[in-house]
Each structure stands twice: as C-alpha cells, then as structure tokens.
Amino acid sequence: MNLKMITLLTFTVLLSGCLYPNERMQENQATNDEQLAAVQQAVEEFSERNNGILPIHTRDQDTPLFIKYPVNFNSLKEENILGETPGNAYEQGGYYSYVIVDPREEPTVQVSDVRVTQTLSSINYEINIYRNNAGNPPYGESLGNGLFTINEDRVNLRDEPNVTSPYTGQDLDVVMTTQGEAVVDYRPDVYQLMESEDIDEYDGDLRYLLIEHYPIVPAFSPEMYLEDGQIVLKEGIVTE
C-alpha cells in the first residue's frame, strides 16, 4: 500500500464530518474512508486491465489541473469493477467530484468540493457581466504577482466574495487573476496546517502540501510558495 493510500485511510474523522451533507452524515459515516479506498482500488484494477488507461472523463486542455481528470464511474461499472457510485459523489446528488491526481506517475483518487465550483461560477458570471460592459475586469486592490481583490462596488454580488473552506470550514477570500478569473485564496488553510504539523519549510507549490495531508484538492487556486516565512500567491492555474 503506497504512502498516499495510507494517508487517505487515516482521515476517517475528516471524511465523516466533511465529505457528506449533514442529512446523510449519520447514514454514511462508517463507510466514507472505505468508499475512497474502494474507488482507488477500482481505478487501479481498471488501469491494470486496460494497459495503463485510466477511467476518466475527457476535459479541455485548459481545465485546471486538480479537476482535470474526473473519475468516470460508468467505465468502472461497465467492467463490473465497482458496483455503485459513492453516495457523496456529484453524480449521486452529493457535494463531491471524485478526481485523479498525478495520473502519470501515481494515480491517486481524491475529491473536489463542488460547492466551491458553484460559488466561483456565480462570481465569474458577475465578473463577466461587468467586463462585457466596461471592457476590463472589476479590479480592486493589487495583491501582487498578477492577482487582485474584486471591486465589490462594480459587481452585483449577493454575498461577500468568499467560499467555505472544504478543509477547515472557515471563510476563504475569492480573488481575481489579471484575466478576471475568480480563484480561491487557500493561504489561511495552509498557515493553519503548517502550524499544526510544525512545518517551517516547504520546497515548491504549497497546494501540494494540502493534497499530501487531506483527500481534498484545492480546486481553482493560484500557486502558493513560501518566501521568507510568508506564503505568496502567484497568478496562474496549472493545467498540465
């Protein structure tokens, strides 16, 4: 059993509390970690049967990396590898989209919170309305490295531009790229994780630190790096 698989199986408490709608939590809390493990096993078996091909839906090349390879449950069912789609999956009316991370080297099944996607879609809709009328996105304060706050006076948002963290439940700011694309600032979650795990140094994109410690991917996020003890956001959502 590889390290990533062991990490997934240790998050029973997280999965029972976070990966299900409240009304279904009691019904499914005993099997949440088992469902992730079952999908992981099914993906590996499908790959072995099909010469390394993964059971994924095809997405556009510009789809953000962490949601670029969603699991195709129909393919798993057609080969009788998986009996049913997990109850918390988006396909079943749940809040989570099952995705494959690192498909080339070590395909690992994790999930993306669909509620984050839906909130960002609403914000992007309002950004695009303003841009179509004004000719440019509703830039607010510059955060550096090609990122900006959203000027709330210029867009018709019903609520503050933020999302609920799929990791901690705290509010996370939604910021905007130079192109006017809404993205999530996961820095508070990373700071909290680094403090709890006593991490002082990290080489590379800190989004992968979240992936290493949680079975949830930081969808629609700019790159994050540790520089002089501070987490710095950098424009660009990697797509390959």
Automatic annotation (TrEMBL):
This is Lipoprotein. The lineage of its organism: Bacteria, Bacillati, Bacillota, Bacilli, Bacillales.
